[in-house]
Amino acid sequence: MKLRVHACLVLLFFLPACATTAPAPRGAGARTQRIANLQRAAALPWKDEGRCIVREASHAWPVVVERCFHALDHEKIRFRDPTGKCAIASAGAAAMGIGVCALVAPEIIVGAVIITGVVVVAAAIQDELDSPTSKGVHPGETEPGLQAKPAPHALLANKRRPQSEPSGQGWPPLTPPGPTERARAPDCIPRPVPHLGGDALHNTCADRVPQNAFPGSDVLVNGKNFDALQLRARVLWEVKTDNFATYTADLQDIVIDKQAVELKRERELARACGFDFRVGVRSPLHQSALLEVEPDLDITVMDWC
């Protein structure tokens, strides 16, 4: 009870009120808030595989933090109070006060949350983000284009990865695992950005990549806008939606030569940041033509597109 009071003191610094029994919100915005909370929590290390977060995610973020703070893996996370605002807000409180304060308002206290190791998205959180309900499909419905069996590479997501040396990165800690300093550089932190161009078919195919962490956005990594990111499997995607079979033979050769050069360059950008790279195409003919020129590319025919 004492810790709960202290947490409320922290939240009062940023919020007009603190209710220990706040009900989960209802209405059209409830699912959006839940998904936003799950995505925010996915960047943090959890000892319980994220089960507390999944249980409480429908509440406001400050309430989620208060109720699940105990489940954080405190060996992989540190809190700082560079401005002194948290010390004022949590006067007399234990370390929990500083931590809750920093997590509730990281945009106010820059550098207050430091992850000292690799973060793999907690299994329960990832499963919830991948669920049809979180993707906007209600029970009893089938998500368009995703009824096919899971892609084999998705199985890699179940493998836990060893902890690396502290990354030193602040919020949000989405730095991919990797042994090199390049893999820890700010340019290697995946950042959702608006889709380039206005090709609706291309954007739909990219958004429907299985386990896409940022549907509705491109992913900026190492200066390149990739079309999709499978965060747990650490795979960046480039999607090609050419109606390849309708091209003349000469045009097919021109397109393949150009795409092979581009895709090799994009693969190296992804690998430099510790990601695998996969290409999605719409037809086996396009796949075989690319593989004939560049057999080392990992190319998938998108049965969801």
UniProtKB/TrEMBL annotation:
<dbReference type="InterPro" id="IPR046277">
    <property type="entry name" value="DUF6310"/>
</dbReference>
<protein>
    <recommendedName>
        <fullName>DUF6310 domain-containing protein</fullName>
    </recommendedName>
</protein>
<keyword id="KW-0732">Signal</keyword>
<feature type="region of interest" description="Disordered">
    <location>
        <begin position="159"/>
        <end position="192"/>
    </location>
</feature>
<dbReference type="Pfam" id="PF19829">
    <property type="entry name" value="DUF6310"/>
</dbReference>
<feature type="domain" description="DUF6310">
    <location>
        <begin position="181"/>
        <end position="305"/>
    </location>
</feature>
<feature type="signal peptide">
    <location>
        <begin position="1"/>
        <end position="19"/>
    </location>
</feature>
